[in-house]
Amino acid sequence: MRIIVTGGAGFIGSALVRHLLTSTDHQILNIDVLGYCSSLAALEGALDHARHRFAQIDITDGERVAALLDEFQPHALMHLAAESHVDRSIDSPWPFVRSNILGTYELLERVRAHLARRDTAARQSFRFLHVSTDEVFGGPDDGALLDEATPYAPSSPYAATKASADHLVRAWHRTYGMPTIVTNCSNNFGPYQFPEKLIPLVIANALAGRPLPVYGDGQQVRDWLYVQDHVEALCRVLEWGKPGATYNIGAFNPRTNLEVVQMVCATLDACVAVRPAGLDSHAQLIRFVADRPGHDRRYAVDAGRMRDELEWRARHPFEATLGETVRWYVEHQDWCREVGASEVAAARRGLGGGA
User: Fold this and answer.
1) β-pair type (52-55, 127-133)
2) Cβ distance 229 to 12 under 8 Å?
3) N or C: less crowded end of the chain, CB within 10 Å?
4) 150-173: per-residue pLDDT in tens?
5) CB-CB neighbours of 328 under 10 Å
6) Which tens digits make up the pLDDT trace of 202-227?
7) Active-site annotation holds for 32
8) What pLDDT does 353 receive?
9) Residue 2: beta bridge partners?
């Protein structure tokens, strides 16, 4: 297959590209704007690969997207490009509206026009896979698992823009017959994640001996999904998923934020010889700080449809892969410095500052 991957230099996108190149024979056209949280270093081994081509473009640039579609003649488009950090969306929503809503609209329209020029077989076999988040559902207080029929109730600007994009993708299927599929995943973790997210942020702060900020009481619950499990699930959806369907991708592994931070600290204690001055454990750096506005208490998706219909389930144990992830960041501090991990980890965002 010829597959376009948008956002393929980001955290999940680069993991997907690496997986496609090592585990399939597909040809990949990788589109990424190379924003602040993208990294060509995450494409190690891919940039010179014979089946990989990289194009630095913005998905809102419809003319360039259209030209690439006509040139590459893809069998599928896997759409991962997005602004994704909730805290940044609270401080400045517009980049999220522009990328997540307008960018998705441009892709849908350009793909629709492109498919109109293809033959019937190509149109019917094409897949537009839109990768979204469990945050579109909001955080119910009753502890129930979120399934594909759960009503949308986004709390943050980020979640609202992803919910908007999901609705656009479904509307293009229902109105125009485009062969679209939506996935909603739980919290990802693993190597090459930009250090504004919880796990790499805690690691960066701990290694620098800075306080480890835990929002509110730290009892917010998230289902943690190893990024390799996620990209394998996406490939299964691309191969077996039904146009018009939605699939939740999760690991059935709910943990509180405080639990995760404590586990990261315990792993650092075991693998880093030098402690911050005067401390017996990195956990002594934990500090409870003002909570994020509109912070949902719990996300945990029901991935039963993936298990029952597509025969997929997460196969990587959380404790082992979290340990591997922590050790990866310890061993790749050059990459962390390159992307400004120290500066990012030291800054607090998401308190509703200026636009």
Assistant:
1) unpaired
2) no
3) C
4) 999 999 999 999 999 999 999 999
5) 16
6) 999 999 999 999 999 999 999 999 99
7) no
8) 61
9) 27
- Measured between alpha carbons, how far is 291 from 350 in angstroms, rounded to an integer? 9
Nearest one of 355, 338, 352, 346 to 37, comparing CA atoms? 338
Cβ proximity of 79 and 107 under 8 Å: yes
- List, in order, residues 6 or more apart from 120 with CB less than 8 Å away: none
Query: What pLDDT is recorded for position 343?
Result: 79
Which residue in the list 105, 158, 192, 299 is annotated as catalytic? 158
DSSP at 246: E
Question: What's 151's DSSP letter?
Answer: P
Of the candidates 58, 83, 135, 229, the residue annotated as catalytic is 135
| Token pair listed for 257 | 């934020």
- For residue 80, what is the DSSP state? -
Active site residue 269: no
Q: Number of helices (H) and strands (E), helices first, in the chain?
A: 14, 12
Task: Tell me the C-alpha distance between 305 and 311, whole Å.
Answer: 9
Give the pLDDT confidence of 23-41 residue by residue, as tens digits: 999 999 999 999 999 999 9
* Average pLDDT estimate for 93-112: 98
Q: Which of 32, 87, 134, 223 is catalytic?
A: 134
Q: What is the pLDDT of residue 146?
A: 93
- From the centroid of its chain, how far is CA 169? 18
pTM over 0.70: yes
User: What whole-number distance in Å separates Cα of residue 191 and Cα of residue 1?
Assistant: 27
Nearest to 114 by CA among 159, 35, 178: 178
Tally Cβ neighbours within 10 Å of residue 164. Answer: 20
Each domain of the chain, given as residue ranges in start order, spans: 2-193+226-252+299-315
Q: Are strands 221-226 and 254-256 parallel, antiparallel or unpaired?
A: antiparallel
User: How is domain 2-193+226-252+299-315 classified at the architecture level of CATH?
Assistant: 3-Layer(aba) Sandwich (3.40)
